[in-house]
Specification:
Low-confidence stretches: 317-337
Mean pLDDT: 91
Oligomer: single chain
Number of helices: 10
CATH topology of the largest domain: Deoxyribonuclease I, Chain A
Shape: globular
Number of domains: 2
Strand content: 25-35%
């Protein structure tokens, strides 16, 4: 009985210790740690078995492991406070298109339904780019920066506001398109369609870590990182972005446990793969997150994600008055011309 209790307790303790480390310790751990929310939900089995059999040392250790895992996971289901931001609203839609297999008209229908201001697309192929143009995407999102590639490495940023090209991040053949969107009332908003390569094999681990590490950190600009990160909030690379100042839209609104992949049925060793949250919208400090939702998309193995944001208003030095001591300047929000 003692052996059985420790068999139920020790794996959760090991998982909690590895999860609390500041880095991902091994390729296999990178694949496993994505399922931390599911492990946290099962972790009370250890202390419950110890309690029923009066194995008190195992009980204390099991409670400690469960508490540590809960501390990592439970906040994702609780909404956070938001900054007092009163600038323009921006709706962001992101979708992984599964090697470009999503029908253009299905994507167009989703855009019509959601009515986003900015769309970030991953696994964006030349054929899908042509199909979207023929389907009339320009009538809804007339501006964009596209980096289509055959297979899974292409991406794009489409917008109803004018855009210009920003730096494109590329590792292992995966192009993470950057664009600067000129939002009325907010000025330049830097957007990246995020899609580092997936750490599916050991040889892909380096391009995954490099692709995450190369994403720009908040530096005073308004920035949005949106897409398929191939990482959850339990991966060290994504935690580094949060520690740098970004906020995850799902986590900030209490929707951080909404699974985004696999949407269609995936199996591993004969077992169904439970859904995990690898698609995200990250916003720089000062951006308020109003809502987050997931949406089904035909023929994709990911759910599309939608985030409603409020951006900081663009401010400029404007002379508003004068006195005997001279003019007084204040920061006043001004819309773009």
């Amino acid at each position: 009985m003692t052996a059985l209790v420790w068999t139920l307790t020790a794996p959760f303790l090991l998982w909690a210790v590895l999860r609390l480390l500041p880095s991902d310790v091994h390729f296999r751990w990178v694949q496993l740690v994505a399922f931390t929310p599911w492990v946290a939900a099962a972790s009370p089995l250890g202390p419950l078995a110890a309690l029923l059999t009066r194995r008190w040392r195992a009980f204390v250790i099991g409670v400690a492991a469960t508490t540590a895992l809960a501390a990592c996971v439970v906040p994702r289901a609780l909404p956070e406070g938001q900054p007092d931001t009163r600038g323009p609203a921006l709706r962001v839609l992101s979708a992984n298109l599964l090697l470009g297999s999503v029908p253009p008209r299905a994507l167009l229908a989703l855009v019509r339904d959601v009515r986003p201001d900015v769309v970030t697309l991953q696994e964006f192929t030349p054929a899908l780019a042509r199909g979207l143009r023929e389907a009339g995407i320009a009538g809804l999102l007339p501006y964009g920066v596209e980096r289509p590639v055959e297979g899974s490495g292409g991406s794009a940023v489409l917008s109803r506001y004018p855009v210009r090209l920003d730096a494109t991040i590329e590792f292992g053949g995966f192009r993470q398109t950057g664009a600067v969107v000129r939002v009325p009332g907010a000025g330049d908003v830097h957007v990246v369609s995020v899609h580092p390569c997936a750490p599916r094999y050991p040889v892909r681990l380096r391009c995954w870590t490099d692709g995450l590490a190369a994403l720009p950190r908040p530096d005073g600009d308004t920035r949005i990182l949106s897409g398929d990160f191939n990482a959850t909030l339990d991966h060290a690379g994504l935690r580094a972005l949060l520690n740098a100042g970004y906020r995850d839209a799902a986590d900030a609104t209490g929707g951080g446990l909404a699974g985004t992949w696999p949407y269609q049925r995936w199996r591993f060793l004969g077992l169904d793969v439970p859904p995990v949250t690898i698609d995200h919208v990250l916003a720089s400090p000062g951006v308020a997150v109003r809502s987050f939702a997931v949406r089904a998309l035909s023929l994709s193995d990911h759910r599309a994600i939608v985030a409603d944001l409020t951006l900081p208003a663009r401010r400029a030095q404007v002379t508003v008055g004068a006195s005997g001591r001279g003019a007084v300047a204040e920061d006043v929000p001004v819309p773009l011309g």
